Amino acid sequence: MHQTKGLLIDMDGVIYRENQLLPKAADFIHHLIKTSTPFVFVTNNSAPTPEDLVVKLNHLGISGISARHFYTAAMNTAEFLAENHPCCTAFVMGDAGLTLALQKAGIPNDSIRPTYVVVGEGMQSTEKLSKAHELIEKGARLVATNPDNWCPVKKEVTRPGAGALAAYLEASTGQRAYFLGKPNPYMFQRARRLLQRHTEEVMMVGDTMETDIRGAIEVGMQACLVLTGSTRLEDLQNYVYQPTCVLEGVDELLEELRGTGTSSSRLQFLSRATTTAQKKPGAKHPDQRTEIAYPRPRPAMTK
Ligand SMILES: [Mg+2]
After folding, report:
1. Separation of CA 9 and ligand 1 centre (Å)
2. Residues in the 5 Å CB sphere of ion ligand 1
3. pLDDT, mean of residues 191-198
4. DSSP-assigned beta bridge partners for residue 109
5. Please, what's the largest Cα pairwise distance for the chain?
6. Using 50, 70 and 90 to split pLDDT, how confident is the model at 298?
């Protein structure tokens, strides 16, 4: 924690949940601004633009941020395609965040012979799905902004994600999709570049094991799991990769950064996880924010 010089921060389940800020989230971000600690919000949601996200966080009570504080899976996808295939074109299935990111990267829309079919968030008509299917059959490659099969909407309510849409087209065409966004290392490396810090100086703060924690660990970053979102402490025993620290939420991380908290470590976390595992299944950990954590197990967010 002491070597951390920059932070990548997930939003849903870390900063807010259901349009409600999590405890001390605004203080946490304002502390980073005050101490000139570089940070970027990284999200797999490809629907909003960075400007949309500034407005959202402003409404929730976080001030002093601008579009440069956000890096979305849509921006990551646009950057990847422009870099790997400079003259490519795309048939896009997604919202403004994705279409604008591709436009900004100089990738034209193409519904006749696109290089890529790019799938993001948002429900699609059967006609559009059929068109995408047809274009992939003609040779377009299938790319998805992120692998999330479902996304949280509110407590116990989810919606299908870009991963589910990609799975539909994978099934119909027999072609495999390539996924950008978390946990793809390309997402983490590009977000890190914005911080102008070395990989080992950066810590990812997230609530989802399959995306936030997996990607950070695989790329060599510190990974801090917070329990205010989709992961319960007792779920950790199901994963090969483990966070480098686990905290109740960003309120606890704020205390750590201010130097007023008790230091968290993997060892400390492991002892707590063991204690929890000995309880009967479904028992609540005393530290767990059950009012905001999902009360029932959900399938893994990604394949
Ligand atoms: Mg999250």
Report:
1. 9
2. 10, 12-13, 207-208, 229
3. 97
4. 90
5. 60
6. low
DSSP code for 81? H
- pLDDT value of residue 259: 86
Encoded tokens for 216: 């950070």
Give 1 Cα–ligand 1 centroid separation in angstroms: 21
When pLDDT is averaged across residues 126-150 and rounded to a whole number, the result is: 97
Catalytic sites, residue numbers: 10, 12
Ordered by where they begin, the domains of the chain are: 6-10+22-44+183-227+245-261 (3.40.50.1000), 73-179 (3.40.50.1000)
Question: Quick check: 195 and 188 in contact, CB under 8 A?
Answer: no
Closest CA to 299 of 205, 164, 119: 164
Q: Are 243 and 204 in contact (CB under 8 A)?
A: no
pLDDT at 291 over 50: no
Give the Å distances, CA to CA, from 77 to 38, 188, 231. Answer: 23, 12, 26
Region 197-221: mean pLDDT is 97
Taking the centre of ligand 1 as the mean of its atom positions, its distance from the CA of residue 158, in whole angstroms, is: 13
**Res 156: pLDDT:** 80
Expressed in angstroms and rounded, the spacing between residue 142 Cα and the centre of ligand 1 is 25
